Amino acid sequence: MKRLLNAATCGLSALAVLVAAAAAGPAKAETTLRYWTFLEPTAAGPRSEAQRQMIKGFEDANPGVKVSIEVVHWSKIVPMLITAVGAGNAPDVALIHSSRMTMAIDAGSVIPLDKYAAGLTDKDKADFLLPYDQFLEKGQLYSLPIEHRVESILMYRQDLIEKAGFKEPPKTWEQLVDVGKKIAMPERWAFVWPLSRKDSAANVKILQSLYWSKGGRFFDDNGRAAVNSPVGIEIAEKFKALATQDKIMPTTAIGVEEGRTMMKSGATAMYVDGTQVFTSIAAGAGIGRNLASAPLPRLDAQSAAPLAIVAGQTLAVSSNSKHPDVAWKFVSHMVSPEAQAISGKVGGNLPVRASAYDDPWFKTEDARELVAWRDYIKAGARANEAHELSDYMNDSLALAYEQILSGRVQVKAALDQAAERFNRRVDQQKRRDAAGGKAERAGAGN
Description:
The chain has two domains: 31-149 and 311-382, D-Maltodextrin-Binding Protein, domain 2 (3-Layer(aba) Sandwich), CATH 3.40.190.10; 150-310 and 386-434, D-Maltodextrin-Binding Protein, domain 2. A hairpin with a 2-residue loop joins strand 4 (136-137) and strand 5 (140-141). The chain is 43% helix and 13% strand. It is of the alpha/beta class. The longest helix is centred in the C-terminal third of the chain and has 24 residues, at 411-434.
């Protein structure tokens, strides 16, 4: 009898649960928002930690929405997105570097966001650090920046500079040589600028700032190579002298990741990179506030000061997102002043909203470099020259610098070869486009 009563009781309990569930209506399915990013969600770095906190804030504010992170190498996001859209399995939101947005737009892989952004007030738009119109491509909004970065800064060890008898970092190329000769040691290079083909030749594009300072360009008005101009030759000769004559930088071209490791470990005293890695480098043993930054040095007294190259990661919604409305909510949250304050305080990123800097943390000594970079941008900045084959140009120029620094090829010959290599790819691209085929617009090659 006891078993029968227990069974009856269990049956009634189950029935009660079913009745209650029916009365409450159908259960709401959780929305999963797929997000492509190059930042590992479980990594210990400051940028990954900032990403975790920003996403948690979004999920807390939007119950029933779960962000599913899928990690893709930053250099592969656009080509893989193009393929995924064609196959119908693209993510909802992708983190895309600003220099690669044109490629994604031309391929039809991302959607215009104007109808969603219609809710932004003039005050909202004015709160962005850069003019809102700069985010438009072909008159439409396809993405919003999640971080700004000055991709052209000189990081230096203040303690080593002072120990060598200097109060300030070098402001001219001549001073760079003077400082470099005094701080170079057998176990430490004085200066590293990553100019290798490794890591997608990512920091080769920073050379544009030096080209502009002398009136030069990477590309001419017809989109063909101009890197072998007299200005380009003069710049390359200066780098060759640093390596072979002054001996303050390696004759072997260094990759970006290798250069960052060298700066973090103390294997170089001065290093050229972007603001986005300043915090992680400062975390190196014995570095901390000994790390400082400055604008790139002038090539000579007659040259203009190299402009800050401003770029950064942006958020775009893929053209076959299953939840475009929710995707826009995610984008809006990640670029909000509150999330941007976290991006700066925790991740060491340069916030894209002016009001984010109202957070009291930005008045502290820890925020000194971020505020200085913000002011550097406001004083005058420029984006990299846009070209659908920019990656191939970077690769071609890096190949030239590998040959120049090692002394295998003379400067003019190496730059002429780089220009010829790039122009061949441009001609191939035009023939493919004329034939109606979908040409490969990303990545390097031989």
